[in-house]
Each structure stands twice: as C-alpha cells, then as structure tokens.
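Example S7 (structure tokens).
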C-alpha cells in the first residue's frame, strides 16, 4: 500500500548467509558487485595516507604493517595520539574474529579522515563482544567522544559487529548545540544481535547506532539484524538520532527484526533524511518515530534545559513490512505535540516531517 500521507506529516539463517558478500540490496548495483558507485572503497594508495594493519593474530607491540599487524583498535589510537598524522589514516582490518574489543575513541582530525575498513569487503572482519568461551560482557563496541563543534571524519567500511549492547555511538555533548561532532560515515556494515538478545541477564540497550549532538553523518547500505531487547523491547532503536543531531542521512539500509521502533529522533534533531530503506518485522509504532522528554509533562527528565520536538525531517521511499508482532507498520508516529515550554520551531514555516513514496507490503512480515 503506497504512503498516502501529505508532505507535511502533520499531527545461521538467511541473515547470516548474506553477512559476508552482499550489500543491503536496496541500492542499485553498479555491475561489479559494488553497490553505490559514488562510494568507492578507500584506495589506500596515496603517498600521504598513513596505514595501520590489524589481524586477529596480531600483536600490539608489532610495527602495524601488513607483515607485522596490530591486534586492537585501541593501540591504533594510542599511536595516533603519540604521533599525530597530517593526512588521512586508514586502518586495514584482516578477516577473522576480533573478540571483546571495546573502543573509547577521542582522536580526530577536522581536515582528514580516519577509515576503519575491511581489507576484503567480501569477507567482513567480525568484532564480537563475546569471549571465545561464550561469556558476554556486553557494552559498546565503539564510542566516539568529541564535543569541539568540528568535523570528526570517522569512516566505518564493511565491518561486522555482533553481540554488543550498542554497536557505535557518536557522542557530542547533549546540552549545548555548539558542542557537536560530525561528518562521520557508516557504510556497508553488518550489525547483528545488538541489545541484550545474546544475553538476557544484561541491561536493555537504547540503540544499535546512536547519535548525540552529531551532525552531517551518513549511515548507508548497512544491515541491522536482530536488534532486540528481551525485556523493555521497545526501548531499543536500530538508529537513535538524539539531542540536536542535524542533517544526517540514513539511506538504503535493511532493518530485519528489531523489537523497538527502528529509527527514532529526539530533542530538536532537525533536517535528517531517511530514504530508500527496508523495514522488515521491526518496532511497535512506526518506521519513523519522534519522542522528547517533555519537561511540562514529566519530572524525570535528566537534561537541565528543555527537550524539544524535531523539525524538517524527511521519510521517503521506504518499504514497510510489518511490526515486531507482524502487524502493519505505520509510516510515522509522534509521541508528543508540536509545542512545549522553552521550545520553538527553527523557522516560521518549519514542519515536523515530510513523507512521500513509502510503501507497506500487502501482508506483514512477508519479507522475513
């Protein structure tokens, strides 16, 4: 069923089989197996680019070359801090399983990129939050902490991340808009078993990929598979765009089985575009949901200043194939109205959401 909403919204399985070689399937293929001809693989061949190599059998005391690779992303950052480059950085990650890495990253360059890339895009390296013996500590695979109001330029290319409560979090400071980060990119990655689905004794999570005051990012051509909390299932979102995270693009991703609404925006996160995605058995309310902690209605909001509605977002040309319970999946849902104390639209003609071209499958959960 086609989306009939006005432009102003108003008021071990098949998933595992495609983890290695395939893109999300939403983009047009360029004929060489590469979806999105505008996003070629980093070539790593320029004289200036600094390169580090990782291998599951690597050694953090090694040189970090292809013949003597490192073992952890943490060691890469330590070397960048000790010897800051003046050009782009590429981290080439060999196939295999990298266990229990939890990265708290702060080194960035506003004029240069740092790319964490599969050495072979047909064989994604796997970052697994569980030990080889089966114990799972949870936590977050990769947290960027940077709030200087500048581009941070971290790129993630064809990685496989599984068995973490949260996969990636780009964290600016949530209380003041100038304390942001941005211009990061997540492309061709496979996120699997995120939340507490792999260990129900862990606390529920709120996100697979989280943006906090993080702008101008692109999240494209990824798989989000089994993003599930076994309790408080609606709390988790595959992509959580929060606290003044503006102008982000979420396109051509596949969302397969998520207990919470797949894309959630929160607190004056404006100008985001969500387009050409497939939503398959996800959420409870809608493909796109907008929530903020309303100080007028609640006494448990933790942000000291007002949280506000989000404006001028777009949700277009997405395919909606059922909720977590296999009911029809709505296009959008707002949890609060347009106005609350301390908040105003960014412009007089601003709208909460524009939608067009979204389709519901005739029967829910037929694409699973």
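Recovered sequence:
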């Amino acid at each position: 069923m086609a989306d009939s909403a006005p432009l102003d919204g108003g008021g071990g399985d098949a998933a595992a089989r495609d983890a290695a070689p395939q893109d999300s399937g939403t983009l047009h293929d360029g004929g060489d197996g590469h979806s999105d001809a505008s996003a070629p693989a980093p070539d790593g061949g320029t004289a200036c680019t600094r390169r580090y190599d990782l291998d599951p059998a690597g050694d953090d005391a090694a040189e970090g070359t292809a013949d003597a690779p490192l073992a952890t992303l943490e060691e890469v950052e330590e070397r960048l801090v000790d010897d800051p480059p003046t050009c782009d950085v590429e981290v080439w990650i060999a196939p295999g399983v990298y266990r229990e890495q939890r990265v708290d990253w702060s080194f960035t360059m506003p004029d240069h990129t740092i790319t964490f890339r599969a050495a072979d895009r047909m064989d994604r390296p796997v970052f697994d939050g569980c030990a080889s013996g089966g114990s799972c500590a949870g936590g977050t695979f990769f947290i960027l902490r940077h709030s200087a109001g500048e581009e941070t330029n971290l790129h993630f290319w064809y990685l496989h991340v599984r068995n973490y409560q949260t996969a990636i979090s780009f964290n600016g400071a949530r209380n003041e808009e100038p304390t942001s980060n941005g211009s990061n990119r997540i492309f061709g990655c496979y996120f699997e078993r995120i939340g507490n689905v792999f260990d129900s004794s862990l606390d529920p999570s709120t996100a697979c990929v989280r943006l906090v005051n993080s702008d101008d990012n692109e999240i494209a051509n990824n798989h989000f598979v089994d993003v599930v909390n076994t309790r408080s299932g609606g709390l988790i979102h595959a992509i959580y765009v929060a606290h003044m995270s503006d102008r982000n693009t979420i396109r051509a991703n596949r969302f397969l089985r998520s207990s919470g609404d797949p894309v959630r925006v929160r607190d004056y996160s404006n100008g985001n575009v969500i387009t050409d995605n497939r939503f398959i058995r996800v959420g409870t309310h809608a493909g796109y949901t907008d929530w903020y902690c309303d100080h007028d209605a609640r006494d448990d909001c933790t942000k000291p200043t007002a949280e506000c509605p989000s404006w001028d977002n777009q949700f277009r040309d997405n395919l909606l194939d059922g909720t977590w319970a296999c009911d029809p999946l709505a296009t959008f849902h707002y949890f609060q109205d347009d106005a609350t104390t301390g908040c105003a639209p960014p412009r007089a003609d601003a709208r909460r959401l524009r939608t067009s071209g979204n389709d519901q499958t005739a029967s829910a959960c037929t694409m699973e």
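Notes on this example. The chain has one domain: 14-26+50-342+350-360.
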